[in-house]
Design goal:
By secondary structure, the protein is of the alpha/beta class. The chain has a single domain (9-189, 219-247), classed as Rossmann fold (3-Layer(aba) Sandwich). It is built from eight helices and seven strands; from the N terminus they run E-H-E-H-E-H-E-H-E-H-E-H-H-H-E. Bound molecules: beta-D-glucopyranose. The site of beta-D-glucopyranose (BGC) has 9 residues, from loops.
């Protein structure tokens, strides 16, 4: 089946990280033009861009802190110059932050997670929508989490940010739909990336994790990247304003497989 993503102009925020790099690779493999956003060290993003170019896909490494509105505007300006705009925003940059109960966590640590995951997603969506609404085409896919639904002790900022992202997605989708623009989110479950390495790299952690996943395996970054491809393509032309869970059934209440 043809995804028809060739030459699409795609920006992946946090494009040098666990899920972001898998998404960037997947879109580059489909012949899309991929801008890999990073913050701080350019090495990984630059190397990815060089690798994509070597196989004939156009690519850019673009620095910006997603919490900085001016920096985000400048990054989109670079895309305008290079490619004349954007077709697909993968709003993926995110952190889980320092763990701590609500009554223990420092306000700065709590706020940082909201700033990156929620405000950052908004700032990027805002710049993207200004362009997409005008051209009457475009797709935004944000990386949410099963924790937009499932409470997670120690991570009140993370869960609140992802639940917020769900409603940001729905509201922006409602606003943008009459203009031919779709806005969606993907909610990954436990995916094998650096963010949760401390869990899956230990046998004990992995055993506990698997009790939470009906399909019986940890997810791979490609599981999420594949869904991003489909959602960004016209195969999903009738899908907007919703979160698609890519979680091996984690949100299907596996505790209720027996008893109840
Ligand atoms: C978190 C991971 C966690 C997964 C399932 C994700 O949003 O980033 O650390 O393993 O949710 O709980």
């Amino acid at each position: 089946m043809e995804l028809n993503l060739r030459d699409k102009r795609v920006l992946v925020t946090g494009g040098d990280g666990g899920l972001g790099s898998a998404m960037a690779e997947a879109f580059a493999a489909e012949g899309a033009r991929v801008a890999i956003n990073y913050r701080g060290e350019p090495d990984i993003a630059e190397r990815m861009a060089a690798d994509f170019k070597a196989v004939g896909a156009d690519a850019l490494a673009v620095e910006a802190d997603v919490t900085d509105a001016d920096g985000i505007a400048a990054m989109f300006g670079r895309l305008d110059e290079a490619w004349g705009g954007i077709d697909v925003l993968l709003n993926n940059a995110g952190i889980d932050g320092k763990a701590g109960k609500g009554w223990e966590i420092a306000v700065e640590d709590w706020t940082r997670v909201i700033d990156v995951n929620l405000k950052g997603a908004f700032l990027c969506a805002r710049e993207a929508l200004r362009r997409m609404v005008k051209q009457r085409a475009g797709v935004i896919v944000s990386t949410s989490s099963v924790h937009e639904l499932i409470a997670w002790s120690g991570y009140s900022a993370y869960t609140a940010s992802k639940a917020g992202l769900a409603m940001l997605t729905k509201t922006l989708a409602q606003e943008a739909a009459p203009h031919g623009v779709r806005v969606l989110a993907i909610a990954p479950g436990a995916i094998r990336t650096p963010i949760n390495r401390s869990v899956w790299s230990e046998p004990e952690g992995m055993r506990d994790l698997l009790t939470k996943i009906p399909l019986g395996r940890i997810g791979e970054p490609e599981d999420v990247a594949n869904m991003a491809l489909v959602l960004a393509s016209d195969l999903a032309a009738y899908v907007t304003g919703t979160t698609i869970f890519v979680d091996g059934g984690m949100t299907d209440y596996p505790e209720f497989a027996h008893g109840g």
